[in-house]
Amino acid sequence: MPRPLARVLTLLELLQSGGTRPVSELADRLGVDERTVRRYAQQLVDLDIPVESVRGRYGGYRLGPGYRMPPLMLNDDEALAVLLSLSTDRASDTAGETARETATAKIRRVLPERLRRRLDAVLGSLAFTESPGRTPTAPDPAILLPISDAVHHHRPVSIRYTAADGHRTERTLHPYGIVAHAGRWYVTAADLSSGEDRTFRLDRITDARTLPGSFDPPLDPAPAERVLTALATAPHRHEVTLRIQAPPEHIHTRLPPGLATVTAPSPPDDWSHVTLRVTQLDWLPAVLASLDRPFIIDGPAELCGLVEEFAARLADFARRSPGL
Q1: Dist. CA 38–CA 89, nearest whole Å
Q2: CA distance 112 to 75
Q3: Among candidates 244, 214, 211, 248, which has minimal Cα distance to 228?
């Protein structure tokens, strides 16, 4: 496509995003001077596209009301971001499910076959935890696409990974699935370097490429369950063990699966066993109180003291007269 024509089409895409776009901003985005922007805008007008000129201090160009987009024009990254957003919304609530499904179908229909196959591989490799939390930001396509392709075709993948402490390593993985949880994206995989199943954050991967060969993925547990277990058992400063007289579903309302591992009681015992690893203990007394169920702290002893202090503060607040 000739470069001036490509810039004209880019101008149309910018105007389709809505609002009035200052000429100076458009010139900067297109890499041309303001006079050239005005010439490109006139070319759109000549094509019967209602580009309006807005005068004044905050003037510029905008599309006239009622203008409908021409056939969808998305690059690879834009198509991936849109479909990921639709999939994440579908996982987090059920409202508008029909609209999301029809929008996804329409986008897929106008995509080139090559891109459609790649995006189908991405969507087929995704999983979501039961409570996904806020919508995660779309990962870098340069990382997501090769890893999802490796998940889809059961192929090894080589990655460069930066750990939380800044240590950088190169690893070869057998990836099982990509999981969205609490605003982040993870890949759960067999790490051939350590011989263990591991979970890696996609935003800490700086390079990913698929390798020759194949592997047989495990039948269970599911990728989302693997990520939750990995997060709940990750090493931290404190390991807390509790017994709570409540079923797991009640405990998980305050201590979600990604934070705590809960073993259901065996009849006639009605005490669930809870294990969690945390960096700080000071937030736990209020959470345990909010469960409103009897509990026993098996460790650490420091938590017992914090709960006693929290209870004393509540009792002191309750004794204060309304006039104070």
Answers
A1: 39
A2: 10
A3: 248
Tell whether pTM > 0.70: no
Among residues 19, 106, 115, 32, the alpha carbon closest in space to that of 60 is found at 19
268 preceded by cis ω (within 30°)? yes
295 and 245 Cβ atoms separated by less than 8 Å: yes
Q: Which pLDDT belongs to residue 64?
A: 83
Sequence-separated (6 or more) residues with CB below 8 Å from residue 50: 63, 64, 67
- Here the tokens at position 114 are 């090559």
Alpha-carbon distance of 293 to 270, in angstroms, equals 11
Orientation angle between helical segments 23-30 and 34-46, nearest 10 degrees: 90
How confident is the model over 26-40, as pLDDT tens digits?
999 888 899 999 999
Q: How far is CA 176 from the centre of its chain?
A: 17
Residues 6+ apart with CB under 8 A from 211: 155, 156, 157, 158, 172
- Give CA–CA dist 50/67, Å, rounded: 7
Q: 95: pLDDT confidence band, cut at 50, 70 and 90?
A: very low
Q: Are strands 168-181 and 126-128 parallel, antiparallel or unpaired?
A: parallel
DSSP track, 229-292: HHHHTS--SEEEEEEESS-HHHHTTTS-TTTEEEEPPPTT---EEEEEEES--TTHHHHHHHHT
Q: For residues 95 and 259, which has the higher predicted lDDT (pLDDT)?
A: 259
pLDDT digits (tens, 9 = 90+) for 40-81: 999 888 888 889 988 877 678 988 876 665 555 667 677 777
Contacts of 4-10 with CB under 8 Å at 24 or more apart are: 4/40, 7/31, 7/32, 7/40, 8/40, 8/43, 8/44, 9/73
Lowest mean pLDDT among 83-97, 197-211, 298-312: 83-97
User: How far apart (Å, rounded) are the C-alpha atoms in residues 13 and 296?
Assistant: 61
